[in-house]
Amino acid sequence: MNYQEKLKLAYDKIIKANNILLVSHISPDADAVSSVAGLIEVLKEKNKKFSAFSLGKKEGVYNFIPNEELVSSEAPKSLNQFDVVVIFDCGSLARTGIEMKIRASLEIRRQSGIKKFPYFIEIDHHEKTEDWADLEIRRQDKASTSTMVYDLLKAGDYQINKNVSECVLSGLMADTGCFLYSNATSKTVALASEMLNQGASFNKILRATTKNSNLLSLKIWGRAIENLHFNQETGLVSSGLTEIEIKELETSSEENENLIADLFGIIVSFLSSLKGVKVALLLREEDGIIKGSLRSNNSEIDVAKIAGQFGGGGHKKAAGFSLTGKLIKTDKGWKVRRS
What domains can you pick out in the chain, each with its CATH number? Predict the structure, then answer.
């Protein structure tokens, strides 16, 4: 099947389902949340029963995205209750937060020889890591997964409304760095223009995704730069933020402020633009999990392959991964002590 045929099949499967689960990746960014939230709008309109899940989603960070409050950080107890499970923007099963449940469901099918529910749909613009979904819709040339949700809804002849346009534009602006990254093209700008015409607010999304307007964000920036280590021989610049440091900065802030969406992605993208840098790595510690963000502007380096060595994934120039362990600072840079 070609791209359009897959989109039409996916839309029909979703709309005909009695109960749908929407999933985005661990510690979701604005594109992941926007992709889920955009489809939530459709399911609400059509009075469909659904659940939405993203492990590690923080309250208040994405309140500029319509329907984001309906995305829970609590995983479903079982997948058996769902007819269709749609996975957005994950890159790999390990990034879903429910990998074991998905693999268990697939193993039951394999052993029984019967295609039982749920029906798995994967919608992603990251590099492929394995075959597992019943229907895989992957386009690495797409600037964001939210733009693929737009394509999905258009394939189903859905009339894009204001809330959906907000979701599509939020994901698009986040993943293109507000059209500053190399994945911003005439097509992305044209789609953004269409979403603005449908009622999306450029200024609201811009403030939420790029403006470091609160004190806590500035403190995080300062500590990340203070902890920076640059290896001139390899061209690797790295920085880390331990859980203790982040909590101290949160406590010392004058107000109870939320970090802006995608702050850590913005920081590592800035580090990758520094002179002499081939690869930028930002590590942060959270609840016993080390989250790594990788960026590169070097055409000969594929950071998605680096992230893949740690169970993560992404794009050639931007990728991420998660590890269990503790972050340790050394004279030679940062080290992860595995638990």
Answer: 3-209 (3.90.1640.10), 215-337 (3.10.310.30)
